[in-house]
Amino acid sequence: MVLDYRYGYLTSARKASATFLSPLYYLANLPNEIAAWADNNIISRNDLIDQNRQLKDEVLILKAQNQRLIGLESENARLRSLLGSSRSFRGKRLIAEVLNIDSQRFSNELLLNKGSTNEVFVGQPVVDSEGVMGQIVEVSLTTSRMILLNDQKHAIPIRNDRNGVRAIAQGDGQLLFLRHLPNTTDIREGDLLLSSGLGEKFPDGYPVAKVISVTKQSSQPYAQIIAEPTANINTANHVLLLWPYMPSIDDLDENQIESSEK
Predict the structure, then answer these.
(1) What tens digit of pLDDT does each residue of 52-81 get?
(2) What are the CB-based long-range contacts (under 8 Å, 24+) for 67-74?
(3) Phi then psi for 177, rounded to 5 degrees?
(4) Which parts of the chain have pLDDT scores under 50?
(5) pLDDT score, position 245
(6) pLDDT value of position 4
(7) pTM for this one?
(8) Buried b (16+ CB within 10 A) or exposed e, 174-190
(9) Which residues contact 226 (CB under 8 A, 6 or more apart)?
């Protein structure tokens, strides 16, 4: 050993021995390497599975939120349209949400989320962005019930937008029919019927219905005229409550000044 230390007689032998034994060392350590590799890969695979599941959950949540945003955008568009439908109306107005639908054989009514605390009153006109919906028939503290335009118990004075012919439109449960119009009356399919303002219950000039059928028989004194409501009676989620316009003192003074100038 002293000679090997001083003169390196066994260096070549040790190198040859190490070269020969290195594969054995590798084989002996191979199970440990395989075990370490397997642990790392199994952990990585489980992590990937967890991450994939988490990403799927996040995507599902984001899709649900996106659908809600789409619904909110549509609802906002409907509300803007609803408010825009009464821009020329000078009285107070209030949006109400439909809480429940009570549609029976002889009754078509909606329950709204506005009541006497919001100054809702019986007989109050209700419209949507397309036309007249109906009127309030019952009021509680926080809710109210409205009868729809096509209810059999409901009737509304109308006028033909084309020629001004006046009539009464009454519901039949689904559509409207015009009562007691002689066969000689000038009315056609496609005519737009507006609220006439008679009776001072509904404001003048709101769309009510469009004529879809006109039948005139010589054996009958009156024409059979069927009209379809323009309002979204079956699909509306929000409606607009209208109050009669009450002119202020300033408005009255301005009108008096204009009259005196004339």
Answers:
(1) 877 776 776 566 556 555 556 666 666 666
(2) none
(3) -130, 150
(4) 1-10, 18, 21, 87, 252, 257, 259-260, 262
(5) 72
(6) 45
(7) 0.65
(8) ebbbbeebeeebebeee
(9) 175, 176, 177, 211, 212, 213
Q: Which two tokens stand for residue 31?
A: 């199970």
Of the candidates 218, 221, 238, 261, the residue with the CA atom closest to the CA atom of residue 78: 238
CA 148 to each of CA 42, 101, 177, 191, 213: distance values in angstroms, whole numbers, following the listed order: 66, 10, 14, 21, 21
What pLDDT shows up at residue 168?
A: 95
Question: Which residues, listed in sequence order, are joined to residue 242 by a DSSP beta bridge?
Answer: 93
Enter the tokens of residue 52: 């994939």
Q: What is the pLDDT of residue 145?
A: 95
What is the chain's length?
262
According to the model, what pLDDT value does residue 252 have? 47
Contacts of 151 (CB under 8 A, 6+ apart): 107, 108, 109, 134, 171, 173
The whole-angstrom distance between residue 44's C-alpha and the CA centroid of its chain comes to 46
pLDDT of residue 15: 53
Q: Which residues have CB under 8 Å from 219's CB, separation 6+?
A: none
Torsion angle, CA of 230/156/94/109, rounded to 10 degrees? -80
